[in-house]
Design brief:
The chain is built from six helices and no strands. It is mainly alpha-helical. It is globular, with a radius of gyration of 15 Å. The termini are close together. Bound molecules: fe (ii) ion (FE2) (2 copies).
Length: 168
């Protein structure tokens, strides 16, 4: 599998997981004051996912075998943090989106001119992930008790998820 194919596989997995995280948050906070904000972010993740799903098909990349696990783990992470309260949900968003930002930035740096369209797609999505991070920060993420440790734990988990989805 080429480096670019690995990128498509892992990005597809990540966007899949991201959509599930926001679904989990909405399952808990769907009637709260952040519902519209969460719906907005989930809709953007769905568009990211649809784009990578199309690339998986057009480039004949096998998706990660871990999708069923990310289906459960993403939702569980979103729901569990939301159950701790809106600020914890936002702290989760900050952590995840920071990890994805770093991941996408590395891919942008690695892609050459012959993959300019993919690079542009990743750059566009990365800008939206940073918007999500900023939404989390604007909605009290840092005021959550235990913010720093939760953020580091979730970021570490994201990095593991990225490595696994590239390889498996
Ligand atoms: Fe995304
Ligand atoms: Fe995002």
């Amino acid at each position: 599998m080429s480096a670019v194919e690995k990128m498509i596989r892992v990005d597809h997995a990540g966007e899949y997981g991201a959509a599930r995280i926001y679904a989990g948050q909405l399952a808990v906070l769907g009637k709260g004051k952040h519902a519209a904000t969460l719906e907005h972010m989930k809709a953007q993740e769905q568009r990211h996912l649809d784009t990578f799903s199309a690339l998986i098909t057009s480039r004949r990349v096998r998706p990660t075998a871990l999708l069923p696990f990310w289906h459960l783990a993403g939702f569980a992470l979103g729901a569990a943090t939301a159950a701790l309260g809106p600020r914890a949900a936002m702290a989760c968003t900050v952590a995840v989106e920071e990890a994805i930002d770093a991941h996408y930035a590395a891919q942008e740096a690695e892609l050459d001119e012959d993959e300019a369209p993919l690079r542009a797609t990743i750059a566009e999505f990365r800008a939206e992930e940073l918007e999500h991070r900023d939404i989390g920060l604007a909605n009290g993420a840092e005021q959550m008790p235990g913010y720093r440790i939760l953020r580091e734990v979730i970021k570490a988990g994201c990095r593991v998820a990225i490595r696994l989805s590239e390889e498996i």
